[in-house]
Specification:
A 6-stranded mixed beta sheet has the order 14-13-12-15-16-17, with helices on both faces. It contains 20 helices and 17 strands. By secondary structure, it is an alpha+beta fold.
C-alpha cells in the first residue's frame, strides 16, 4: 500500500518533535528531529531534488510516526536515544563515543593518574578525549617523567611499606610512604592539570619560578629537579609534527569519499600539541556525501563531548555550524583552515583519511577474493557473509570453556564474540561440551533472536562435527552451512582436513589457497579466544579455592583480604605483618595464610 503523504501532512502538527519513517515490514528506516514537524516531514515528499539515497528511502515509506515534544532540546535527546536503540537503516551512525580514551585524576589527598575508558565516576576529573590509546599512554608517560604522580591502584597505595621501583627511577614521588607531603603533591597535581588542559606556558612559568626560588635559598639539588622538568617539557613541546605558537585546543575534521566509501578523520590538537588522528567509518552511509557524514559526526560526537576552542572542517562551514548549533548551546566554533599551521593540520587529516580508505578497500577486496574462493572450495551456493567458529579448551577436563568467534566479511567482529562456561558434563567430554555450547548459541537463533550465520566452522573432526549436525537438526537449522576443520597429519598448519556432515569426501586445500587462509584465520582466533577464557577461569578457580581451603578464612575475611591487597596475587606476596593489618586477621591466622599460599 502506497503512503498517502498529502493526507498525512494535513493532520501533522507544527510543533517540534521527532519523526520515524517506517517501512512496509515495520522496520524503522530513519529517525529525525525537527523544529517544525510539518515543515520538515513535508520536505521529503514535496522536494524533487532529493539525493539518490534519500529518494530510495522515501520510496520505501509505508507510514510516518511522530512524537511532538515541548522543545528542540527534548527533540534532540529523544532522537539520539531512538537512533541508538533502533539503529535505523538510513541514519548515518558513528561508533559510540564512549570508546574514546581519557586520562583520569582520582580524588583524595594523593590523587592517582590513570588511563580510563568507559563511563564517568563522580569525584574523578577526566581529561580528553584522546584520539587513540597511544596518545593517552604517551601523555601518561610524560606525566610520570615530569610531574611524578602516582599510577598505582588504591589498594596497592594504602598497603606499601617501602617505595616501589617507580620511585627509584624517578617516575613517582612515593606519597605512599611519605616521601612527599600533601601540599607539595597537590602542587604537582595542579601543574599536571594545567598541562592536560593545554596551558603549557603556565606550567613552564610556574616551574621556572620554583627553580629560581630554590636557587635563592641555595637548594640547588631541588633547583636542578625543576630545571630537568622544564627541559623535558620543552623537549616534548618541540617534537610536534606541526608546531603551533599558541596553546590552543582544536579538532580537525576531514571527510573524504573514495569508491562509494566515506571516512571522517578526527585529528585532535590540545594546547598546540598534535595528539594524532582517528579515522572513523560511519555505518549506513552508502552513497552519502562527505558533507552529510560530517554533519552526522558533529551532531553525535559533540553531544557527548565538550567543544574545543575551534573546529576546523573541510566542508561547508555554514551547514556544519548549523548542525552543531542544534546540539550545543551558544555559537559553534566551526571554521575553515586559514593559517599555515591549520592548513597543514587539515592536509594531514585528509591524507590520513585517504590512506584509511585505501586500506579499507584493500581489505575488502582481499576479503571478497577469499570469500569467493571459500564458496568454490566448499561448494556453497553464495559466498558466506557471516562465519561463526567454535572451539573447546580445558586442562584434563578442568575449567572447560567453549568459544564462538564471528567473521562478518570485513574481518573479525570482536564485539560479537561469546564464551560459554561449560558445566554439568563429564570432565574432558569434548562432545558434550560442544553440544552444550551450540545449543546455547543456536536455540536463540531458532527462536528468531540474534544473527544467523551462513557458515559454521567446528574446530574438530568427524565426532565434533556429528554433534554439531545433530544440534542443528534438532533446532531446525539444517540450511546453515557446516564444516569441520580437522588438524592434519602431525597437526601442522596447511595440512588441515575439511570434513562435511553430508558424507562428502574430506577436502585438502593447497597450503597457499586463499580459502584455507581464511579458515585458518577464523579457526586460530576461536582457539586463542577459548584458551584465554579457559586460563582465566582456571586461575580464578584455583586462586579462590586456595583461600577457601584455609581454616578460619570464611567469606567475610576472604573478601577483606582480596580487597586489601587487590586480589590473590597481592595476598600471596604480602608479609605476615601486612596480613596482620587486615581487620579480623590475628598473627596466628596471618602465619597460617602466609604458609598456605607459599
Amino acid at each position: 500500500m502506497n503512503f498517502d503523504a498529502k493526507s498525512f501532512l494535513r493532520t501533522l502538527t507544527e510543533e517540534p518533535g521527532v519523526y520515524r519513517m517506517i517501512g512496509a515490514d515495520e522496520s524503522v528506516l530513519y529517525v529525525g528531529k525537527a523544529k517544525n514537524l510539518k515543515r520538515r516531514v513535508a520536505s521529503y515528499f514535496q522536494r524533487t531534488q532529493l539525493s539518490p539515497r534519500i529518494a530510495l528511502m522515501v520510496a520505501q515509506v509505508a507510514r510516518v510516526d511522530v512524537t511532538p515534544v515541548r522543545s528542540e532540546a527534548e527533540a534532540l535527546i529523544l532522537e539520539n536515544n531512538l537512533i541508538k536503540s533502533l539503529g535505523p537503516k538510513y541514519n548515518i551512525l558513528f561508533r559510540d563515543d564512549k570508546s574514546y580514551p581519557y586520562i583520569a585524576l582520582s580524588g583524595g589527598e594523593y590523587p592517582q593518574i590513570y588511563y580510563h575508558r568507559g563511563g564517568f565516576q563522580k569525584g574523578v576529573r577526566y581529561f580528553g578525549p584522546f584520539p587513540n590509546s597511544w596518545a593517552v599512554r604517551e601523555s601518561l608517560h610524560l606525566m610520570q617523567k615530569i610531574f611524578r604522580l602516582r599510577t598505582c591502584e588504591d589498594n596497592t597505595f594504602s598497603n606499601r611499606s617501602r617505595p616501589c621501583l617507580l620511585y627509584q627511577i624517578q617516575r613517582c614521588t612515593a606519597p605512599c610512604v611519605g616521601k612527599i607531603d600533601a601540599a607539595a603533591y597537590a602542587a604537582d597535581v595542579q601543574l599536571a592539570s594545567l598541562f592536560l588542559n593545554g596551558r603549557h606556558g603556565d606550567v613552564i612559568d610556574d616551574l621556572s619560578r620554583r627553580m629560581e626560588a630554590a636557587s635563592e635559598r641555595l637548594a640547588f639539588e631541588q633547583a636542578m629537579v625543576y630545571r630537568d622538568q622544564i627541559r623535558n617539557l620543552q623537549a616534548v613541546l618541540h617534537k610536534q609534527f606541526v608546531e603551533s605558537s599558541k596553546d590552543e585546543d582544536v579538532d580537525v575534521l576531514a571527510a573524504v569519499e573514495q569508491g562509494g566509501l566515506v571516512c571522517v578523520n578526527l585529528a585532535m590538537v590540545r594546547g598546540g600539541r598534535h595528539l594524532g588522528d582517528r579515522p572513523l567509518f560511519p555505518a549506513n552511509a552508502q552513497g552519502c556525501a562527505p558533507l552529510d557524514a560530517l554533519a552526522a559526526f558533529v551532531e553525535q560526537h559533540y553531544l557527548e563531548h565538550p567543544l574545543p576552542g575551534k573546529i576546523l572542517v573541510n566542508g561547508d562551514v555554514a551547514t556544519l555550524r548549523e548542525a552543531l548549533e542544534a546540539v550545543v548551546e551558544g555559537k559553534a566554533p566551526v571554521a575553515a583552515p586559514r593559517f599555515e599551521n591549520e592548513r597543514a593540520w587539515m592536509g594531514m587529516a585528509e591524507n590520513n583519511a585517504g590512506l584509511a580508505l585505501l586500506a579499507r578497500q584493500q581489505v575488502s577486496a582481499r576479503g571478497e577474493q577469499r570469500l569467493d574462493a571459500l564458496r568454490d572450495a566448499l561448494a556453497l551456493g553464495d559466498p558466506p557473509k557471516r562465519i561463526e567458529c567454535f572451539d573447546i579448551s580445558h586442562t584434563l577436563g578442568e575449567a572447560t570453556v567453549a568459544s564462538c568467534v564471528v567473521w562478518d566479511g570485513a574481518g573479525m567482529k570482536k564485539s560479537e564474540y561469546r564464551r560459554y562456561n561449560i558445566a554439568g558434563i563429564t570432565p574432558g567430554d569434548d562432545y558434550a561440551a560442544m553440544r552444550q555450547a551450540l545449543t546455547r548459541r543456536y536455540e536463540k537463533v531458532a527462536a528468531g533472536e540474534g544473527a544467523r550465520p551462513d557458515l559454521i566452522l567446528i574446530d574438530g573432526g568427524k565426532g565434533q562435527l556429528g554433534v554439531a549436525h545433530e544440534v542443528l537438526t534438532e533446532l531446525g537449522l539444517t540450511e546453515i552451512g557446516l564444516v569441520g576443520v580437522a588438524k592434519g597429519e602431525s597437526r601442522k598448519p596447511g595440512l588441515e582436513e575439511l570434513v562435511f556432515p553430508d558424507g562428502r569426501a574430506p577436502v585438502h586445500l593447497p597450503p597457499d589457497a586463499p580459502a584455507l587462509h581464511l579458515i585458518q584465520e577464523v579457526r586460530d582466533e576461536a582457539h586463542r579466544f577459548a584458551v584465554a577464557g579457559h586460563r582465566a577461569r582456571r586461575a580464578k578457580t584455583r586462586n579462590t579455592s586456595r583461600l577457601e581451603d584455609i581454616a578460619g578464612v570464611g567469606p567475610t575475611r576472604r573478601r577483606k583480604l582480596l580487597a586489601a591487597f587487590g586480589g590473590i596475587d597481592g595476598v600471596r606476596h604480602a608479609t605476615i605483618e601486612d596480613l596482620c593489618r587486615v581487620d579480623g586477621i590475628n598473627r596466628q591466622l596471618a602465619e597460617q595464610i602466609y604458609n598456605a599460599l607459599r
